[in-house]
Amino acid sequence: MKKESGYQPSPQRHLESHIRRAHVIPILTVDDEATALSVADALVAGGVTALEITLRTPAALPALARIRKYLPQLTLAAGTVRSIDDYHAAIDGGADFVVSPGSTPHLLNYGVTAAVPLLPGVATASELLMGFEEGYRGFKFFPAAASGGVPAVKSLLGPFAEAWLVPTGGVGGENAKDYLDQPNVAAVGGTWLVPQDLIAARDWEGIERLAYNTLHKLA
Hints:
The protein is of the alpha/beta class. The protein has a single domain, classed as TIM Barrel (Alpha-Beta Barrel). It is 45% helix and 15% strand. It is built from 10 helices and 9 strands. The strands form 2 sheets. Strands 5-4-3-2-1-9 form a 6-stranded parallel β-sheet, with helices on both faces. It has a 3-stranded parallel β-sheet with strand order 6-7-8. Residues 1-5 have low confidence and may be disordered.
């Protein structure tokens, strides 16, 4: 269904303010819900305001629900949403928004009126245009580095001046600011704030410190 050119789904407008405030959205794949809560708690202590839990393991949905219960102040995303069933599960788990790695007409159409907003994944101008036709203005740009990186983000600004992007994939501490300096980038996403070595060592203070230092560097 094609929407008017100025249309943007109301839930996405609300979502944009939360994402812009976050600057960085850590992306966490979890093996157990207790560890996920400890990681999330450390991130919040370091100043993180948004977190994405990928739906790639059996522990993801229980972890999502547990974090929602104990850290209600955190803007919580369910990532790797690839179907309407995933979407429903994410809503039931308490997600504030859902993130898909790509876009399909079915997902885009469903997300416009869903109970929680969708941040659809795009990698090309054609996919952005498909999202625009459904009324979307916010997108996950993925995989960012493989899709052209900062130059690609810059090139999309002209024809899609109303779009705001969350580049993910190949984004890290060394290039996050380059993305955030672009006017069409609302935030960046990545795994570098939740390194597996710190999680394995249960170094929650290390994760808190990494988050704090990163956010202050990018502020």
